[in-house]
Amino acid sequence: MAAKKSSTRKYGKAAGKSVKRAMHKRKAGTLKSGKGRHPKVKSREQAIAIGLSEAREAGAKVPRKRTSKKSGTKRSSAKRSSTKKSSRRK
Length: 90
Description:
Number of strands: 0
Oligomer: single chain
Mean pLDDT: 80
């Protein structure tokens, strides 16, 4: 049998309100992508990202930002170099 998924909300109601406000501002043409002389936001995805970011700052229930997974090349090379050094000492 398939496992039943839990139906907990990933985003809180406050996060939804923040995104809704950002989307309305985008439609009105007043949503900007930062402080100072930044261009107006035209993309739907960017408006959602701004709304979620503001909700996160306000302390609303929003999942963490996705981060790209880096390959473990640095760790493996560090291990190799340490093993080479130890073999030289012997």
